[in-house]
Amino acid sequence: MATLELKNLHAEVAEEGGETILRGVDLEVSSGEIHALMGPNGSGKSTTAKIIAGHPAYEVTEGEVLIHLGADEFGEDFDIPEEKRTWDLLDLEPNERAALGVFLAFQYPAEIEGVTMVNFLRTALNAKLEEREELFEDEDEEAEAEAEATNEDAAGYESSPMEGPADEGEVGVAEFQELLAEKMEQLDMDERFAQRYLNAGFSGGEKKQNEVLQAAILEPSVAVLDEIDSGLDIDRLQDVSRGINALRDETGTGILQITHYQRILDYVEPDHVHIMLDGQVVKSGGPELAEQLEDEGYDWIREEAFEAA
Amino acid sequence: MSVLQETISEETVRELSEARDEPDWLLETRLDALEALDDVDFPDVIRTPGRMWTNLADLDYESMVDPFSQTETKEWEADEGIDVLPFHEAVEHEESLVRDAFGSVVDPETNHLTALSTALFTTGTVVYVPEGVDAEDVTIRTTMNGRSLFNYTLVVTEQSASVTILERQDSGEDLDGARYYSGLTEIVGGENAYVQYGSLQDLDQTTYNYQLKEADIDTYGTVDFIDVNIGSRLTKASVESHLNGDSSESKMVGAFYGHEDQHFDIDARVWHNAEHTTADLVTRGVIDDEARSVYEGVQNVGAGAWDTNSYQRENTLMLSDESEADASPKLIINNHDTEASHSATVGQVDQQDLFYMTSRGVDERLARNMLVEGFYVPVLEEIEVEELREDLTERVRERLQSRD
């Protein structure tokens, strides 16, 4: 069981006189729950997602982003001590946040030429597991590991970038390929994608599918999906939705789904719907709230928020 | 304007030639080159306002060039059926072949440094691939041991011959002070012949390096270059293809990685002189620390070059704020029946790419290293010789891992 908690989050663009975008966001997403975060353009939804993952373009001026982990969140063999069950993500690098179970599916995933999917994903999975070990090591172990690390080769994988990494890391090549093939099949993805360069030349829909695939491989505690439904045709929308539901049902991932449209919510049914306006969550409710938005737009919310203020 | 009048005289050249039992025509060629030193300029270099990027004329040749200290270790590997001979053996056994081809592609009097090289070279290789012979994996390894070395390579392919060559240079034991390496490569690409000539320059960082590699390409012939520059203190390297026969082709692929205070001045030039010719120029370079790089690519489409296809792209990736780079892609079209493109970029590692990768759990250093290695993939994909592909990958990785 894990919970991502945003407390009174204020943020602005990280530059001189940067625009204030978030004005006190409160939100909680726990394992196994599906939350939809809706709101008009410019209300701060994507910024919220990026700040959770640690995007350097934003500066948090107030508030907290916490993750609370249950004792066995990373498996029964991985005991999380009492004092390491709550982390302030704002103190951590993006890769450390990933190691603690945070995942962001990008609205516009980067196209990375020269790095194959299979290479990247196995590297990411192993890096995440290794970083997790480091974060939870007690101090004695830490000193030991540091001594060990100086003897090891520095960052880099051992074989050519075209062939993929050598058989090192916790998850070996053969084991990883099996895992990848299984997850790709679930998402109805062509296995040849594994050898292609990460998102390079992918269609919009293929990129989104690939984001869900990566989440399936990395098995996050909480996944933030930033407009995963944009640019998808109906077949792919169904594939992607099936992937998201599987993530929740099989991995127990908590989902924070950012969307403009009711459409995907027919396939990925939210337990909670939140509406964002001008950098705040102004209203929360059940799935009926999304339907009401679909019918009536945001004006009534604006009026309600205005009256309340 | 010879910079070397003191050390290099007619006697010097005669002595070098006599010691090698050279025929008169070769001695005459050397003496002509020596005489031309006074008349020809240094190679062209890029100028931007207020700045000449590579000042070849001001190098201290006096201290670097010692015609009688040229020592090297050379190794050759080749298939049966073709001749790969040390230059002076080739002069002995294949004199008419060498005589016909020598200086036919690289004019010794092209510039001051080619003339110097022709006057003083003491070692070299001749690769001769007879008609119809398909030769794989010729390897030429040169380790420079003395203060200076002038090296020469001649590749002659007859009709429908094919060969893949890797030529590499590195340095032996350290010497105090600067060193000078000069290499000329001539490639005669026969009708319907295929040559891939790969080069890996990995000289030590006290060496000033000048190289010119030039190919003449006959009808339906292909000569592809892979030019990799890793070592040296300063490099001026030009790769040039003359598409002289109809339907001839040339791919000109380059890669460099400069760090510390290295300086690379890289040129790729193609001349479309016939009909239906194709050229593809691709260069990828990384610079780090206080390294500098300047690239010039030139596509010349002649008036008679109907139905030309010519493409050029160059990308330089800067890993530090102190590094400097300039790139200049040029396209000169004298025939409208041409499909051509040219582009060059100088940039840094993309922050969005980095964030994407780190958000998936890869730390920033590893993510950056993966991006840089991936940056060379378009070059790696073109390399047919495994040794070159592996060594380029390995050297790039070593450099990345030695970063702070």
Characterization of the model:
The complex is a heterodimer of chains A (309) and B (404). Chain A has helices at 45-53, 94-99, 117-136, 139-151, 173-186, 204-218, 234-251, 287-296, 299-308; strands at residues 2-13, 20-30, 34-38, 58-69, 86-88, 102-105, 222-226, 254-258, 272-277, 280-285. Chain A is of the alpha/beta class and 309 residues long. In chain A, the strands form two sheets. Chain A has a six-stranded mixed beta sheet with strand order 6-7-8-3-9-10, with helices on both faces. In chain A, strand 1 and strand 2 (20-30) form a beta hairpin. In chain A, helix 6 packs parallel to helix 7. In chain A, 41% of the residues are buried. By secondary structure, chain B is an alpha/beta fold. Chain B has one domain. Chain B contains ten helices and 20 strands. Classes of the chains: A alpha/beta (309), B alpha/beta (404). Chain B: It comes from Haloglomus irregulare. Chain B: Belongs to the iron-sulfur cluster assembly SufBD family. Chain B: This is Fe-S cluster assembly protein SufD.
Q: Which superfamily, in CATH terms, is the homologous superfamily of chain A?
A: P-loop containing nucleotide triphosphate hydrolases
Order of helices and strands of chain B: HHEEHEEHHHEEEEEEEEEEEEEEEEHHHH
Number of helices of chain A: 9
Rg of chain B (CA only): 21 Å
Number of strands of chain B: 20
Distance between the termini of chain A: 36 Å
The overall pLDDT average of chain A reads 90
- Major sheet details of chain B: 9 strands, mixed
Main interface pair? Answer: A-B, 38 and 33 residues
CATH architecture of chain A: 3-Layer(aba) Sandwich
User: What is Rg of chain A?
Assistant: 20 Å
Beta fraction of the residues of chain A? 15-25%
Helix percent band of chain A: 25-40%
Mean pLDDT of chain B: 94
Q: In which order are the strands of the major sheet of chain B placed?
A: 3-6-8-10-12-14-16-18-20
Query: Low-confidence spans of chain A: pLDDT under 50, at least 5 residues?
Result: 152-156
- Order of helical and strand elements of chain A: EEEHEEHEHHHHEHEEEHH
Q: How many strands appear in the DSSP assignment of chain A?
A: 10
Overall form of chain A: globular
Tell me, briefly, the overall form of chain B: globular
Number of domains of chain A: 1
